[in-house]
Amino acid sequence: MKTTFKQFFNIQTTLKIFVVILILFSYASILCHKINLPTDDLGRHLTNGEIIWQTKSVAQTNLYSYTEPDFESANHHWLSGVVFYLLFKIIGFSGLVIFKIILLLAVFSLVLFISIRRGNFWIASLASIPAIYILSERTDLRPEIFSYFFTALFLFFLYDLEENPAKNRIFWLIPLQLLWANLHIYFFIGIAMTAGFLLEKIITHRKALKNNPLIKKLSFLFLSLIAISLINPYGIKLLLYPLNIFKNYGYDIVENKSPFFLQHLMHNPAISAFKIAVALLIISFFFSFRQWLVFRPIFLFLASLSTTIAGFLMIRNFPFFALIFLPAISINLKNAAERIKIEIEIINERVSSVLKIALPCILTGVIILIFSHYLNEAFFKNKEKGVGLTFQSNASAEFLIKENLKGPIFNNYDIGSYLIYHLYPKEKVFVDNRPEAYPKDFFDYTYLPMQMNEETWQKIDKKYNFNIIYFTQQEGTWWGQSFLRQRLRNDGWAPIYADSQAVILIKNSPENQTIIQQYKITKENIIDKIIYLKDNNFKIQMDGVHLLDLIDRHDLAFDWCQELNKKYPNEGRVWLEMGYLKSAENNQASLEGSSQYLEKAIELGEDLPATYDQLGLIYFNLGQFLKAKSAWQQALNIDSKNQNAKDYLKQYEALNLP
User: 307 with 299: CB under 8 angstroms?
Assistant: First the structure.
């Protein structure tokens, strides 16, 4: 019997070690991707850090823009810029990726440790599956990684105080809060967590509050965290900044959107995992509340409720939900797991021994099966594996610098930080990806209208006399895409550079004729200039298709898609692109082909409202009215607020069609 127990213990221990390694390796695998500098904020953070390190001061105004240089703006993550800059000087871009991986693995390891120690190993392990899916939404190198780190540390020290109330380790949180307040705007989370923990102890010890040492410590800590947060370059303004930042926020960005909105625009496994995790968390609290007399999870409930609401409001808050979800569900279901264990022991001893080994093995198999999703190419179709910078990250800026091209530059929102990194202070930007650093009116009455309205564009162009237009070629907004296509079709501007990341146009003026003659991209020579993109990964090849589409070479783009289709026959995005490209020809045969391609794309998972909207239009132009109506109705079934489908159906009814 002694040998059997030893063998059982060894199997259990080996399985647990293997599962922990697998979980951490799976998370590390999704963190190990390159920095896409043209669209990341990192370039601006590095420039911030360099300026602060050299001048020993933090800017109080916009600084980088020639449009709003004097607009007051708080750099709420100034210390992150300094940290990134100093690390970059020592270890470069590759080292920064490794630093991010190590830091975020430490965060997850600490939260997993808390979940296992205070909860149940197998519940924590299984809960890691949706948690990592949720965390996959935010894997870039940003100042927010420090907020994840401090959230985990606060959890650890608060629970440590509960286990060791006589110890004073909890006061390490005060200097940590000082760092947090200067590293990232989410520093208030530490104050909120302490307040929640204090509230739980007040309710739990409400009959013996007087001279309670635990409550005294937490009260002192709470007040100290608020006070220490005032030590920053902006004083009380930064302390209150989280409450005020959206009062002047004129530009909508994806990370600030609700998952309910985004689920109709893209397929995102993090959104599905978030919904599943919320449902599981609610169920776990039913088990927890049944034990109210012996276990009162007030802190966990408040933290779970807060992060759930935050996640439903903005997708950027997903990681904070995941970091609370993991310990919450493990702790809530701990007793339920113990009861299952007791029930197994009551069963016949032989059956019980088999189950004790079989169940962990089955659970391990489930974890391997699900996590294997991240170990194939699927997750990395929009990211490049490895460390350092993505393909052609610096190429467009190097071209601009080499050719000594001068502004003023009209750039799009996404590429602003990149241009700051490469060109400041010689050139300033029109806009960059800091909505709070520009007046709301700037976006409402300048930046957006000039891309939507030709007359406004001409007026603003006359005001600033732009010499360069510099856009990310995968500009994500309809107005940006429309504007770029119009400029490419306009003889007043000449495209002189295009790659998988960016497009540069120069004004067709007498002073620029030499550079135009040397580098101008035309419909005739575009394929020769970008043919090298075919030798790269799926994403970069699709970038090549997009470039051909931008310059109105739909025929070449379609041919390129057909080649891709042979390599990736089950990739819905290729079928979708072929459907859109074929519809541009607008004849009977091409429309019939387009409908078939879009139907195939839907079959392969591209079943989004926009796809059904387009398919309905094609059916309508083919005279297949009932199919058109059905497609638009399906778009509304997916998203009841889809305005395009509503408008199409309204026009359909006005025509008295069947």
Answer: no
Give the pLDDT band of residue 142 (cuts 50, 70, 90). very high
Are 445 and 463 in contact, with CB atoms under 8 Å apart? no
Exposure string (b/e) for 432-449, b if CB count within 10 Å is 16 or more?
bbbbbbbbeebbeebbbb
Instruction: Using CB atoms within 10 Å of the CB of residue 511, give its burial: 0 to 12 exposed, 13 to 18 middle, 19+ buried.
Output: exposed
Separation of alpha carbons 544 and 438, rounded Å: 33
CA distances from 231 to 51, 228, 544 (A): 20, 6, 49
How many residues does this entry show for the chain? 658
Give me the amino acid identity at 508: N
d(CA 221, CA 72): 33
Instruction: Give the span between the Cα atoms of 418 and 616, in whole angstroms.
Output: 39
- Mean pLDDT confidence for 197-224: 87
Confidence tier at 258 by pLDDT (50, 70, 90):
confident
Does residue 524 sit in helix, strand or coil?
Answer: coil
pLDDT digits (tens, 9 = 90+) for 494-545: 999 999 999 999 999 999 999 999 999 999 999 999 999 888 888 889 999 9
Q: How far is CA 456 from the centre of its chain?
A: 33
pLDDT digits (tens, 9 = 90+) for 371-430: 665 545 545 557 788 999 999 999 999 999 999 999 899 999 999 999 999 999 999 999
- Bond before 425 cis per omega within 30 degrees: yes
Closest-CA residue to 458 (of 492, 413, 429): 492
Say yes or no to pLDDT of 3 above 50: no
DSSP state of 165: T
β-pairing verdict for 493-498 and 502-507: antiparallel
Decide: 330 and 119 in contact? Cβ < 8 Å: yes
**Angle of helix 188-204 relative to helix 298-313, nearest 10 degrees?**
150
